[in-house]
């Protein structure tokens, strides 16, 4: 979702079989019953600024699919707060324009 937010936004679709790609629909009510507030709280604890997304269900060919749409962020999302720090190769400088808080010390 961070990659989508840092780009132009994007969709994650649940209810599609991977290989071969096939519409199977949601197999349980987990997607429906997952509280958006809990998802939002998790992302707000891990990423800054916040990820803006929408969660909805769409019926396609009599099957329900779950969709998470991530909106494009107004500014790039950073490293998880208190989480990992990218490890730059010691002989390669971090990309120019990388914020100081993003660089490994």
Helices and strands in order:
Blueprint: H1 2-6, E1 10-14, E2 16-17, E3 22-23, H2 30-33, H3 36-46, E4 53-60, E5 63-70
Antiparallel strand pairs: 1-5, 2-3, 4-5
Describe this structure in words.
The chain contains three helices and five strands. Strands 1-5-4 form a three-stranded antiparallel β-sheet. A hairpin with a 4-residue loop joins β2 and β3. The longest helix is centred in the middle third of the chain and has 11 residues. The chain has one domain. Helix content is 19%, strand content 24%. It is globular, with a radius of gyration of 17 Å. The protein has 105 residues and is an alpha+beta fold. The two termini are 27 Å apart.
- Rounded to an integer, what's the Rg over CA atoms? 17 Å
Number of strands: 5
Low-confidence stretches: 84-94, 98-105
Largest sheet: 3 strands, antiparallel
Summed up, the helix count is 3
Dominant shape: globular
Give the tally of structural domains: 1
Sheet with most strands: strand arrangement: 1-5-4
